[in-house]
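Journal club prep — side note

Before the paper discussion, L.F. wants everyone to see what a predicted structure for a comparable chain looks like in token form. Sequence:
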Amino acid sequence: MKNSILLSLLIMLSFFSQNLFSQDRKKMDDGRRERMEILKKRMDNKDANKNLTKNPMEMLRLNENQRNEFQKIQKKYRESFSNSKNSLKKKHLELELEKMNENLNQAKIDNLFDEISIIEADIKKMTFKKNNDIKSILSKDQIIMFERLTKRREMIGKRN
């Protein structure tokens, strides 16, 4: 009698434990599925943001006339930005070489810091002028979107 009761309790216990375990597994699968969906949405958003930040003309929804003006402005500043950035790299290299020199020439190092600061200031001025030229061809809504894009780019630049 005791054996049959114990056997029936053991069977019921195994049945309930298996049933509870399968429910827990289902909950785990649901939780895992939710996390995967959230990750997928995040990745989709990242891909969308990458595409939008790559081409500002698409993000700003420029008309044909604005596109032409935008490209002219980009072309106008492209060469001067390139030249300034190249000379900035050269000055940074000269500074690093001068720092490695056994006989430190403090006056030359100070001069290089001054030259680097001037070039960086020129780049900031050109960036400001370029952005103002671009804003001059945009509508009010496009200006707001353009400012958001530039702030986003600045934040990305600070991270790198």
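L.F.'s comment for the group: The longest helix spans residues 2-54. Keep this in mind when we get to the figures.
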